[in-house]
Amino acid sequence: MDHGSPYGPGAGGRPGWRDAPGRPAPGDGSSLVRPYAVTGGRTKPRYDLAVEALVTAAPYPPRDVAVLTPEYRAIMDLCRSARSVAEVSALLRLPLGVARVLVADMALEGLLRLHQSRPAGTQPDVRLLERVLSGLRKL
Fold first, then answer.
1. Which of 43, 71, 85, 134 has its CA 20 to 30 A from that of 106?
2. Which residues contact 36 (CB under 8 A, 6 or more apart)?
3. From residue 35, how far is each of 82, 96, 119, 120 by CA, in Å?
């Protein structure tokens, strides 16, 4: 018996797979999906992902983007030009933790490329964070 994956029948509980064709895109205000359902209940990315890390869509995704969830497709569309993880969060109106989990998952799946400016586990540059914050406030 299927106890219901947050990603729908046949999704196998894998983030990134479409759960329902008519589900609204993230950030449009009509989505009833809770953030923990979008990330499969995870609150932390699988590896340390800086909020200022730049993200770009992979030029040749390893699978058809038509089978991705609306969240994954929105991130792919947004990242056709380089965006920071913080920008992805703000522009798609996703909580930062959710955006970090989704971006990290997508990078592991080969859908996104990460361009981190500092080694994982080190403190971020305060000036860079101030610039990111200033940019987010302008949105």
1. 134
2. 42, 43
3. 24, 10, 28, 25
H/E element, 134: helix 126-138
Predicted model pTM: 0.63
Six-digit token pair at 64?
């058809």
Q: The tokens of 128 are what? A: 């860079």
Mean pLDDT of 85-110: 92
- Predicted pLDDT of residue 3: 39
In the block, which residue shows the tokens 């703000």?
A: 90
Neighbours of 51 (CB within 10 A): 20
- Is-contact 75 88, C-beta < 8 A? yes
The rounded distance, in Å, linking the Cα atoms of 137 and 96 is: 15
Domains and CATH numbers, the chain: 35-138 (1.10.10)
Inform me whether the pLDDT recorded for 84 exceeds 80: yes
Backbone angles phi, psi at 55, to 5 degrees: -130, 135
Residue 1 has pLDDT above 70, yes or no: no
Sheet containing 83-84: order of strands: 83-84, 54-57, 112-115
State pLDDT tens for residues 30-57: 454 676 677 777 778 877 788 888 999 9
